Amino acid sequence: MSDETSATTPETTAGDQQVVVIGAGPAGLTAAFQFHKHGIASTILEADDMVGGISRTAQRDGWRFDIGGHRFFTKVQPVEDLWHEILPDEEFLMRPRKSRIFYKGKYLDYPLRAFNALKNVGFLEATGYVFSYAWARIRPPKDQTNYEGWLVARFGWRLYRALFKTYTEKLWGVPVSEMPADWAAQRVKGLSLGNAIVNALMPKRNQKDITSLIEEFQYPKYGPGP
Ligand SMILES: Cc1cc2nc3c(=O)[nH]c(=O)nc-3n(C[C@H](O)[C@H](O)[C@H](O)COP(=O)(O)OP(=O)(O)OC[C@H]3O[C@@H](n4cnc5c(N)ncnc54)[C@H](O)[C@@H]3O)c2cc1C
């Protein structure tokens, strides 16, 4: 697709309605798809030279590169149904998750596993994190409207500084204290150090409830992008 040109323009129209969708990321493509199903033609304007937004799959020399692995996991049935409407079952694979946290030169299993986390972090340091978390529970940050306050209330200052602050600022390129809390709520959905510990001690307990802890997810065979 070239700059600001039409991506899809189905023939069918409902009345004189003219719809322009800005952006050919998942949201724009889904909107245009839904319009199309209702017989309304739409034009997608995309500034980039390819569709998919930040969920794109770029191709080079015959290889496909997903710009950030995109797990397909939802508790919303209409969304699940839409994915299966678009992709045939044989191209929508269930994959086991394998995530690791690179922490001070060591790889920690994620979701955390009690023995693995203790072995890699060390008993003293782990105790420090638990005390810092307990302190944050007793004296939570007054302002939890930004990402920093929200995270500190759920993980404690120590873990926030060691892990979340640097990771998040590298990922988004914005100081954590300037990000609104709902970004955190979206990324870390329902997780806190408390339930990460409970999950580490009793694996499989929370995995369907807390998106960050799920052990398996669906993934399109050829990547999330077109
Ligand atoms: C590292 C990372 C990992 C992620 N992992 C997951 C995951 O595992 N599972 C999951 O479900 N989600 C994940 N996400 C979130 C997911 O990528 C986004 O929710 C999704 O891409 C948002 O889609 P969107 O269409 O709203 O925006 P975008 O994907 O940002 O697309 C917006 C599009 O609009 C275009 N555009 C913007 N402005 C204009 C303009 N003025 N004119 C024309 N075009 C314009 C852009 O070029 C872009 O193509 C992840 C995100 C990141 C960064």
Keywords:
226 residues, alpha+beta, FAD/NAD(P)-binding domain, 2 domains, two-stranded parallel sheet, two-stranded antiparallel ribbon, 7 helices, 8 strands, 16% strand, globular, disordered N terminus, binds flavin-adenine dinucleotide
Provide a descriptive summary of the structure in words:
This protein is α+β, with helices and mostly antiparallel strands and 226 residues long. It has two domains: 79 residues, FAD/NAD(P)-binding domain, CATH 3.50.50; 120 residues, no CATH class. Helix content is 39%, strand content 16%. The protein is built from seven helices and eight strands, in the order E-H-E-E-E-H-E-E-E-H-H-H-H-H-E. The strands form four sheets. A two-stranded parallel sheet has the order 1-2. A two-stranded antiparallel ribbon has the order 3-4. Helix 3 packs across helix 4 and helix 5 packs across helix 6. The chain is globular. The termini are close together. The protein binds flavin-adenine dinucleotide. The site of flavin-adenine dinucleotide has 17 residues, from helix 1.
Offer a concise description of the structure.
With 226 residues, the protein is of the alpha+beta class. 39% of the residues lie in helices and 16% in strands.
**What is the H/E string?**
EHEEEHEEEHHHHHE
Radius of gyration from the alpha-carbon trace, in angstroms = 21 Å
What is the helix tally? Answer: 7
Strand content: 15-25%
Q: How many structural domains are formed by the residues?
A: 2
Distance between the termini: 12 Å
Mean pLDDT: 83
Give, in spatial order, the strands making up the sheet with the most strands: 1-2
Principal-axes shape call: globular
Got a strand count? Answer: 8
Which hetero compounds are present in the coordinates? flavin-adenine dinucleotide
Low-confidence stretches: 1-6
Helix share, percent? 25-40%
- What class, by secondary structure content? alpha+beta
Please summarize the sheet with the most strands.
2 strands, parallel
